[in-house]
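Review session, final week

We close the course with one last complete record, chosen because it touches almost every idea we covered. It is NADP-dependent alcohol dehydrogenase, putative, a protein from Entamoeba dispar with 251 residues. Go through it on your own first, then we will talk.
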Amino acid sequence: MEILKFQGWSFSEIFHVNEADANLALLPRDIKAEDAVMLSDMVTTGFHGAELANIKLGDTVCVIGIGPVGLMSVAGANHLGAGRIFAVGSRKHCCDIAMEYGATDIINYKNGDIVEQILKATDGKGVDKVVIAGGDVHTFAQAVKMIKPGSDIGNVNYLGEGDNIDIPRSEWGVGMGHKHIHGGLTPGGRVRMEKLASLISTGKLDTSKLITHRFEGLEKVEDALMLMKNKPADLIKPVVRIHYDDEDTLH
């Protein structure tokens, strides 16, 4: 097997990897470096959101937030067999890509309360599963209100502020609605990366759709980071390509 030299979240040309046998994946040459770099964060996190929501065949799913992680949650829900998939977002480019990854409906929060929109679209029934990939501490209340009793919410959104999470008592079934909330840190490691890479190799997942901006040279890392901070409307994800020993390496 030909091996692709690959770096994930590391802003240096050389770095040490602990437990390399368990943490470094061998990637075949048929995967482009810039596509592979999405596996170690965007893909595994987004798919984990779908896993945490316990999505089953034919489920109606809502993915709240369709940045790069949310888009991969849409793709993950689709791969797990979801039927109808609502994607909540407002940026046209992200909405278009969400449809390409398997979303069947777009819910624009600028058009009104997303819970009301979901309930209207489902004839008041709500959805089977929710993946939270964006929002804030108030987003949990929306998820609880739109989900059916006996169902699951998977959260992979980082909550950087706020002291408490809102859980509406009545819509939670006064504590007896069996509405389960799961949140967790995305798994990594060699085996998972190689399995996710197989989705690219077999043509079942195209991560190139996530890449909207490309930079050349390690000195451009700061430019890429500022782009993510400022979040222009056309941004999904940037990549930085450096050249080291005649082999392409990406950050």
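Two points worth writing down before the exam:
The chain has nine helices and nine strands.
The chain has two domains: 20-40+191-250, 46-183.
Good luck, everyone.
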